[in-house]
From TrEMBL:
It is a single-pass type I membrane protein. Residues 117-315, 354-555 form the Disease resistance R13L4/SHOC-2-like LRR domain. Pfam families: LRR_1, LRR_14, LRR_8, LRRNT_2. Belongs to the RLP family. PROSITE patterns: LRR. Residues 1-24 form the signal peptide. It is found in: Cell membrane. PANTHER family: LRR RECEPTOR-LIKE KINASE (PTHR48063), LRR RECEPTOR-LIKE SERINE_THREONINE-PROTEIN KINASE FLS2 (PTHR48063:SF101). The keyword Protein biosynthesis does not apply. This is PREDICTED: LRR receptor. Residues 43-83 form the Leucine-rich repeat-containing N-terminal plant-type domain. It comes from Prunus dulcis (Almond).
Amino acid sequence: MQSHRMCLKLLLAFALLLLRCVQGGEVSRKHRDATVTGRCIEKERQALLAFKRGLVDKSDLLSSWGSEAQKQDCCRWIGVSCSNQTGHVLQLDLSNKVVGAHSWNYYSLEGKMISPKLIELQYLHHLDLHGINFNGSQFPNFIGSLSNLRYLDLSSSDFGGKFPSQVGNLTNLQHLDLSSNYFTNAENLDWLPLLSSLRYLDLSLVNLNNVSNWAEVINKLPELTNLTLEDCDLPSPILSTLSYINSSKSLASVALLSNQLSTSIFLWLSNYNTSLVYLDLARNFLAGSIPDVLGHMSSLAYLSLSHNQLEGWVPHSFASICNLQSLDLDTNILSGQLSKFVQILFSTCAQNSLEILNLRLNNLTGSLPDLTNLSSLEVLWLNNNQLSGGIPESIGGMSKLNSIDFHMNSLEGVISGTHFSKLSKLQDLDLSWNDLAGSLPDLTNLSSLEVLNLGNNQLSGGIPESIGGMSKLNTIDFHMNSLEGVISETHFSKLSKLLVLDLSSQNSSNSLVLDVHADWIPPFQLDLLSLPSYKMGPYFPKWLQTQKDLSHLDISDAGIFDILPSWFWSLCRNVEFMNLTGNQIRGSFANLTLEFSYSPELHLSSNKLEGPIPSVLSTASYLDLSHNKLSGSISFLCSSAAIGLSFLDLSSNNVSGEVPDCLTHLENLVVLDLSYNALSGKIPTTIGSLFHIETLKLRSNRFVGQLPSSLKNCTSLVLVDVGDNKLSGPIPKWLGVSLRNLVILMLSSNHFNGSLPAQICHLTDIQILDFSMNNISGSIPKCLNNLTTLVQKGKSSLEIIHVLENLNGTPAYEDNATIIWKGRMYSYKNTLGLVKIIDLSSNRLTGEIPSEITHLVGLVSLNLSRNQLTGQITAEIGNLQSLDVLDLSRNQIEGRIPTSLARIDRLGLLDLSFNNLSGGIPIGTQLQSFDPSVYAGNPQLCGAPLKKMCAAQHVQTDLSNQEDDKDELITLGFYISMGVGFAAGFWGVCCTLIFKRSWRYAYFKFLNGLNDWLYVRVALIKRQLKDMLNR
């Protein structure tokens, strides 16, 4: 027994000794191992302190590093690990995950430089500085001398300069990550094969466009298992060399997304048929059919070919991929029936392993098939295809589904409770932008549901109160349906996690009513609230006061007739989009000291806001204050904070004073509308600094002086409207030279003088040209037929849509134009393509109407009235078949009305009054249907609809002798042709009778018979008359 105890003691002693030996070689960490007793090497401690001095640590993350007595042991510093046996520093890890950086402050540490004293850490085998911002500093060359390094991660550290090929000296490296830096283009990767132990390589965002042999180099890394070369501008492998590659057969994970790879990459990948588990080739230039080679990668579990140009469908060789868990073919041009596509998947052994199926943004057609065979499926994304038919109820049996996205298809039918009866794990359900109808079903059995999006369908009826019990919901989106009824507090009773509530309607007359108590306190804190056209008024909804986290707020057209409460702006500190348009909100911006966290979009038009505009609003990216009662100056534009402003509409207010000459910093402005105010003075020259401006509207103000020549720098201008001001001077020639993109040019109701410059004929895209009510003299240019858009018939594709960058709520703005149409002011937007107008009325133009104007067959309105034009109406006026308005009144035009005018059957407004026209009005239904007043002031005109009738011969002459439409029947040609025809016919018959005996005998026989018949008929008639007289 005693010997057994002795043996046991010896065994325990040996075990303890072995354990100590093992521990002696381990790495100790201050935050993991409390048994560390040794102190670090002094020169290594000094090297680390020198390294710290090269960092900017605003958050004091390295507070444990120091020279104080209690901080002497560097092995206890955060991010530092030492050998328990020798005390040497073995690991330095200051990545975000170690030092505790917050996601909202990614660069918690910044580097001024990396101290060269770090080379003292010669025993270092792990260095991770991921996420430290070195602000473009040169990569430290000495790191190539840390020969014991096995792990090096300098990703997302913002190093710059030449790509560090000296890393090739670190022959013991197993993990290398230099991704997301700012190195210059790498010339080669010839140093990589020196790292024969490398298992993990990530060079993402390093430009490797010049490295044509990258695939050969990778194959010379025998231990490599993980390769990530994302967004490296990689060229496709060279086919001629691939066949000679001696593949290592070790790669398990390959991520080559966002490069320039073509289908030749698949030949290289075929070397790894048995080893590849993860393959991501998204965002390349892969085209054609999905290759069969993928079906031979039997170990593949993750495959992404998204964002390419692949077509067809999954090859049958996929039947061999038994471990496939995720298939991502998003954003290609795959086509054909979805049922056939799925049938191939059903025939594979992967049908029980597939968890993610992403086929969205393709051209797949047909109905949704039964997918229950995909028993492990968790994510099913089929959105943005061309699927039709109903949703099969069998989908309700796929119990593992947690995300369904079918939006942007043509699915129809009714949603019933059985569709999703057993989907207790479902978290996301998006059926928006389809044609689903019926009422909303009870979905309370979806106990895990977080996102419910049924927007833009044809759903009707009320919203069931049971939705208030779905406590995990964070998103409810029912926008653009035909829902009705009352929404009460019960609908939200347990929705404490709700972040998004969008119930916006498809029309302004919303049938949903929000009926909550005045003192209601919602259980949620919303991020997005969209309830346009909900009648919340007349008072401002008090419950909004509880919502402190709003970033998106839309309560437009809500029937609010209240004063804007003082607490409202405190909710808007973090707002990115706000729409209060179309209410009757009163009040001012007095004492507004709010500082927005972002550059918000603010839609506050069509209210009754008054007072001056505060400078705090200049920080907005989109600011619409139109149709209010705002006053004062617009000096807020001088604030440097306005640099991000891309859209500004202050139209229809009472702002006054001069436009400040401080616009040079508004470099992002795309739309500027200051029309219908009381602004005065000259248009500032700094307006020429708005290089990105596309719409400039200054109508109905009191501007004076000339158009500033600096405006010719604004070459992106599409719409210019400075009508109804007091501008003067000649119309600048540079309008047609520099502003070639103009579609709408309106200079009406000003004091412009001089002649019309021929350069306006260079405006080939012009569709609305309005120079009316000025003092323009001279003749109408004959080159108007160069206005290409007006020469084309029919509706143009014109929609002036401005792309507003960096905006979430309004990424694009569709512009409008206000014009006088048939005597009334109209605003056109969606139908702007129908409006093609030239208006030169109320000027002092002289000379004849050029015949070239009749080439503008697309014109819908031509107004040349109230000028001093002479000559005749061009005979080809009838070519303008698209005209709806023609006004030539109050000129000195003479001669007859061309008959071709009667052929314009679309003409709805005609005015030829007060000219010197003469003769008869051409007969045609259209011209006779107008009121006689359109011909008044032409004493020599006659014919309907005037009471003065023309003489018959004059009418005949008017109809037959117009220069443009000569159609006489009896002409010299007629007589000549008649004579020739008679002679040919006479001699043709006579010659035949003379030379052809049978015809001559037949002819004489016919004459003899005719003679006998006539004799008998005359004798009978004579006898009948004689008998009648004898009676």
